[in-house]
Structure formats: structure tokens, C-alpha cells
TrEMBL record:
Signal peptide: none annotated. It comes from Paenibacillus provencensis. It comes from the Bacteria. InterPro entries: Tscrpt_reg_Rrf2, WH-like_DNA-bd_sf, WH_DNA-bd_sf. This is RrF2 family transcriptional regulator.
């Protein structure tokens, strides 16, 4: 089997793309955007959008306003939000359920070596994503 490197998806893009698009949209519009309008713009379900944006609210990058005129507003300057930050926020998960304790020694050794390699790859990717901000995306869109 021969792999085409142009067709391999290295970055898990779905949540990352949605988050980057939503934050860019908030930066461009600079006003409160309802989850319904934002979800329609992004062509996704509003409840999924709220789940994607929740970690950004927790991080203080986005403000969630409740009520009839509620929605989301970007609180952080787009020049200070890197794609690496967005990637890390959208891909943070607990690995406790992913690490079974009843592995034999060979599996544990493989997992250790494999994790070292994938961590190195991820660090290189994050180094590249760190070079770009939301403001860079906005600049390329105009």
C-alpha cells in the first residue's frame, strides 16, 4: 500500500477548524454574535458550536453573554491568539481512559517509544502553528 502524503490528514481538523473559523468571525465582526447566527454562518449545529467555544470561554479568550441579546464576543486581541493556542485548546483531553493498566511489558515499552515519537512530531507542528495568529488569517482573507 502506497500512501499519498498530500492526502494524509495529520492535524485533526474538525474542531480546530471550527474554533479557528468561529474566533476569526468574532474578531472580524467585533460585536456579540448569537450561537444561532454563528452556527448558521459556520454551517454547524449550535449545540456543537457551544461545546467547541466553551473551553475558550473558560480560558478567558471569549465572553459568553446570556439572555435575549446574548451570544459570544472575542475578548482577546486577534494578534495575541496563535493557531497553536487554538489547536491546544481544541485538542486537550484527559488520557486516563486511554491508558489501560493491565498492559504487558512489550505494550508499555511500545507505548513509551511511540509517545516519544508522536510528541516530537506534535512539537514541530505546534512550532509551525505558533507562527500564525487570528490576525494573520484575517489579513489573508482580505
Amino acid at each position: 500500500m502506497q500512501l499519498n502524503p498530500n492526502k494524509v490528514e495529520i492535524i485533526p481538523k474538525h474542531r480546530f477548524r471550527i474554533a479557528a473559523f468561529a474566533l476569526t468571525w468574532l474578531a472580524i465582526n467585533q460585536c456579540v454574535q448569537s450561537s444561532a447566527v454563528l452556527a448558521e454562518t459556520l454551517q454547524i449545529n449550535a449545540s456543537f458550536l457551544r461545546r467547541v467555544l466553551f473551553p475558550f470561554v473558560q480560558a478567558g479568550m471569549v465572553e459568553a453573554r446570556e439572555g435575549r441579546d446574548g451570544g459570544y464576543v472575542l475578548k482577546t486581541d486577534p494578534t495575541h491568539i496563535t493557531l497553536a493556542e487554538i489547536f491546544l485548546i481544541t485538542n486537550t483531553e484527559t488520557n486516563s481512559d486511554l491508558n489501560p493498566t493491565d498492559q504487558d511489558e512489550t505494550c508499555s515499552l511500545f507505548d513509551q517509544v511511540f509517545e516519544e515519537i508522536t510528541d516530537e512530531v506534535e512539537q514541530q507542528m505546534l512550532k509551525s502553528l505558533q507562527k500564525y495568529t487570528l490576525a494573520d488569517i484575517m489579513g489573508r482573507m482580505h
